[in-house]
Design goal:
The chain is an alpha+beta fold. It contains 7 helices and 6 strands, in the order E-H-E-H-H-E-E-H-H-H-E-H-E. The protein has one domain.
């Protein structure tokens, strides 16, 4: 039986490392979701030396870098009430497109995450965090959860 592991990361770099490692393990992009508040920039260390990058334009660092930031560069922008503009990709993005009235909590609940956990995850995104989820076979769930923990995820849930 497959399950979904979801966690909140405090920064794009940590989320990016997790997504890259999942991909190296052979996990398809179709099994990975990433959600982040669209603030129009990445963190320090951007290759152009300015520390910023428009994640919504889909070119440059994101397109070449892969991982979470690369996936977000090609993600859809959504306006979520109570959160503001977000970028989302993967299976979770499809659920969130219908969440305009229910906010991010409603979209996460529609995805199968209980209300209390959805509230924690929404708060993480409001604070600038990045949500990563992966749909994994039962044998891979513990590995994914451990990977999330190793890269500093908090509010890690398995469903």
């Amino acid at each position: 039986m497959s399950k979904t592991v979801v966690g909140a990361f405090d920064n794009h770099d940590s989320a990016d490392k997790v997504v890259k490692e999942l991909e190296q393990r052979g996990v398809s992009n179709k099994q990975i979701s990433v959600v982040a508040k669209e603030d129009g920039k990445t963190e320090k260390g951007h290759p152009n030396g300015h520390g910023t990058h428009d994640l919504s334009n889909g070119i440059g660092w994101g397109a070449a870098g892969g991982g979470a930031v690369g996936l977000l560069a090609s993600a859809g922008a959504l306006a979520i009430p109570g959160v503001g503009p977000i970028l989302a990709m993967g299976p979770l993005a499809a659920t969130l497109t219908g969440a305009a009235t229910g906010g991010l909590v409603g979209g996460l609940m529609d995805y199968g995450i209980p209300k209390r956990e959805s509230e924690h995850l929404e708060e993480s995104v409001k604070q600038g965090g990045v949500l990563v989820s992966v749909h994994a076979d039962s044998g891979e769930v513990d590995k994914a959860k451990k990977l999330f923990e190793e890269h500093g995820a908090h509010h890690i849930y398995v469903h």
